[in-house]
């Protein structure tokens, strides 16, 4: 049994590509692990077209970071800082290695459960952009949105990107939040929410 577990830990690596900015074209190794589903280049390109004017100098929070693809793309495009939340130790460690290889000190990785982390009151600066791309079919998004709204995580006029499976229940947003962009690509729905 132990031998099989070791084999699982030494699975081949996948990779994600930085689309634009400082590290354009860089390919970064990511774990091939169950539940780790990096945002596709196509969806990522749409998202960052939406955010083009908002990312420079923004403070970003990457919940359920996984490969860190979204947060690293934001750093490449001149975000001020990105905080990454990742529950699984191997993924968090790989993300730290990738940030070190990019020679940036603007990314901070927390090896933590995102829901537990966000359930606390924020004691630091609020975030301008939040990426919420959790594992599908766990219904984490409603809880995340409640925590973000109630615990001081969001700056005035913050933007929240939410990626869900196509058959996810409709999002219940606090007043006066609104979905300002939405796109479906295959079985993935991407939404950009404006907090006001």
UniProtKB/TrEMBL annotation:
GO MF terms held by the record: 16S rRNA (guanine(966)-N(2))-methyltransferase activity; nucleic acid binding
Broadest EC class assigned to this enzyme: transferase
Keywords, sorted A to Z: Methyltransferase, rRNA processing, S-adenosyl-L-methionine, Transferase
Record flagged with keyword Transferase: yes
Record field: catalytic activity: guanosine(966) in 16S rRNA + S-adenosyl-L-methionine = N(2)-methylguanosine(966) in 16S rRNA + S-adenosyl-L-homocysteine + H(+)
InterPro entries, sorted: DNA_methylase_N6_adenine_CS, RNA_MeTrfase_RsmD, SAM-dependent_MTases_sf
EC number: 2.1.1.171
PROSITE patterns: N6_MTASE (PS00092)
A Pfam family it matches: Cons_hypoth95
Annotated family: Belongs to the methyltransferase superfamily. RsmD family.
Role according to the record: Specifically methylates the guanine in position 966 of 16S rRNA in the assembled 30S particle.
NCBIfam families registered for this protein in UniProt: 16S rRNA (guanine(966)-N(2))-methyltransferase RsmD
Entry protein name: Ribosomal RNA small subunit methyltransferase D
Organism for this UniProt entry: Frederiksenia canicola
Lineage: Bacteria, Pseudomonadati, Pseudomonadota, Gammaproteobacteria, Pasteurellales
